[in-house]
Inverse folding.
């Protein structure tokens, strides 16, 4: 009997080792760190002078700063000067309809310890106090407004020109009312969009004390778990891509959920494994087999991995930056 038991254990061990879904294929911490370091070098080489822009701008600043990456002297100062020049030249109006422009800049400024309430004499936070204008973009507006406001635990200032003064509660309620029957969220579709669902979860992560938010969160997580692919990845608009996986990874980290949570492991592969599978020496691919690396994919992969790294190191999450703010 003992001999048979030993034979069984040996066979079981061989099956585990030889299995294509063995844990030996999962990412390691050293692999994660090396990919982050390699990608930061690519980003710094590609974006030597960050602009006020959704590409080569704020997401680069966020990722590098939160990753504690050593940057060239005056890298952040030069970016801040660019922000000052832009805000001043536009008389405080970054965009008259896309208020995510303000949210994105606020996130970057918070990451480098700058005050978004006084940029060349303009209070960028004031723009997020106008509920109607922020929600002109649909669900994206309040999602990023919450991320920006909560990044430094900022109070919403008074905006005398706002027809409806914004509150965090108004933004949260706006988002919750747009949850779809499958548990996900989307800009206009009737079924869940991976990216939007993940970004909603990032914004709602800080409000889990609310019962309705917790319930909505669990439904959204269940939805994402169901649509996760067999390789641990995700798709959007019918196409598997890096950015969708990166947004889900960021959401899990913001919620304090391990990427190894059984709900998000498919055939032994985590969403992190999937994100790393898009890596090349020149950054990250948008889609596998695509025409080279893209800056958008590289930026999103980078800050999602930085978020994971911070989580593993028991640091505050990617978007929880109130330690950066001088009270």
């Amino acid at each position: 009997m003992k001999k048979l038991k030993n034979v069984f254990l040996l066979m079981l061990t061989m099956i585990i080792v030889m299995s294509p879904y063995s844990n030996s294929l999962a990412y390691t911490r050293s692999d994660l760190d090396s990919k982050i370091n390699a990608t930061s070098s690519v980003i710094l080489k590609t974006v030597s002078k960050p602009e006020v822009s959704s590409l080569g701008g704020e997401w680069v600043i966020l990722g590098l700063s939160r990753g504690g990456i050593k940057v060239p002297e005056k890298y952040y100062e030069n970016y801040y000067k660019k922000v000052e020049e832009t805000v001043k030249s536009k008389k405080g109006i970054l965009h008259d309809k896309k208020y995510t422009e303000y949210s994105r800049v606020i996130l970057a400024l918070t990451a480098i310890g700058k005050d978004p309430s006084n940029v060349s004499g303009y209070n960028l936070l004031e723009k997020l106090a106008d509920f109607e204008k922020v929600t002109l973009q649909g669900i994206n507006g309040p999602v990023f407004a919450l991320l920006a406001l909560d990044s430094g635990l900022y109070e919403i200032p008074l905006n005398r020109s706002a027809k409806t003064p914004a509150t965090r509660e108004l933004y949260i309620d706006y988002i919750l009312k747009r949850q779809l029957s499958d548990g996900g969220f989307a800009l206009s579709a009737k079924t869940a969009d991976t990216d939007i669902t993940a970004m909603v979860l990032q914004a709602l992560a800080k409000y889990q004390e609310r019962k309705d938010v917790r319930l909505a969160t669990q439904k959204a997580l269940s939805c994402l778990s169901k649509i996760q692919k067999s390789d641990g990845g995700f798709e959007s608009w019918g196409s598997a891509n890096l950015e969708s996986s990166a947004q889900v990874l960021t959401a899990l980290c913001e919620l304090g959920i391990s990427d190894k949570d059984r709900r998000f492991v498919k055939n032994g592969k985590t969403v992190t494994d999937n994100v790393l599978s898009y890596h090349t020496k020149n950054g990250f691919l948008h889609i596998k087999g695509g025409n080279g690396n893209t800056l958008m994919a590289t930026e999103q992969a980078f800050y999602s991995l930085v978020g994971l790294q911070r989580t593993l190191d028991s640091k505050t999450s990617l978007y929880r930056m109130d330690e950066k703010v001088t009270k």
